[in-house]
Design brief:
12 strands; binds NADPH dihydro-nicotinamide-adenine-dinucleotide phosphate; binds oxalic acid
Length: about 325
Amino acid sequence: MTLLLTINSAGDSWSAERWRERFKTALPEHSIVIEGRDRYDAAAIRYAAVWKPNPGFLQSLPKLQVIFNLGAGVDAVLADASMPDVPLVRVVNSDLTHRMTEYVALHVLLHHRRLPRLLQAQKEKQWLAKDQWAASALRVGIMGLGELGRDAAEVLRRLGFRVAGWSRSPKTLEGIETYSGDDGFASFLRRTDILVALVPLTRQTRGILDRKLFSMLARDGVLGAPVLINAGRGGLQVEADILAALNDGTLGAASLDVFEREPLPAVSPLWTHPNVIVTPHNAADSDPDAIASDVAAQILAYERGEPLRNVVDRALGY
Ligand code: NDP
Ligand code: OXD
């Protein structure tokens, strides 16, 4: 059986050759070929392990049986209208989940404890007066209660924040207020001081983080104005609306890990806005060794006739 790798990513640890080494170790009986580097018979390819594959490419593999996306978000793969109708498997693993929870907790805490203000005061050698509130004074709202949103919600709850979550289908989570669908959206936003976006990018969620949404967030919180944290996808946000909302006080601050265009262009005013923290889409890097061993284990289980796990629902788009 042949596994083909098609990977468009910078960074040594993500080079196709490094992935080949990992898969050779985990799948010694399989042939591993790299798109654009090796000569291979397209009809021999049964599996493709992909990251941002070139649109149209996957349909050139007539006997493809499973596509393994090497990340959690599948928007880049599903954007290809010609994608063959075979199962698409995405990454779900605890290492990735915990890294995302670290990012969310870090950014919620730094806004809660006003770290940017403290760092500025340090530069100016200013000893600020005592002025602090409890975590329970802050209402965090997490958009998306999937693998990542649920874990972040639980950790924030344990830190003492008042946490709510919003999802497509209704959920019950201990100690967390839950809202769902269009009906629950306005109530979810109205009680939220810090909004964390962890929904996938789909037809329904594209551009959801816009001016209208920002104006619905709570305006009576201890922070003075609501805060946006987007660690989902850049396509969720309308950057012109974020800037306008920050400039007129509708938003107090934003932590953005993902952008409409990545890398974020040097001309973007987000880079230098005093109330914006920019991170380079690294909220949760996934560990390539863990992903390769997960994919290899899935291939071996599939060949034994067992069902695939973490298969994307193509109709829902995630
Ligand atoms: P899941 O598929 O496990 O969860 C998605 C959640 O979003 C679910 O709760 C789902 O609702 C909800 N959702 C989807 N569509 C809607 C909608 N229209 N309205 C309301 N809720 C909706 O995804 P993960 O938690 O694993 O990952 C979330 C996203 O995080 C990924 O798609 C990816 O884009 C991003 N990501 C970013 C990384 C980074 O480094 N910045 C790293 C990894 C992932 P329901 O439960 O009802 O299905
Ligand atoms: C992912 C990502 O989706 O890193 O895994 O963004």
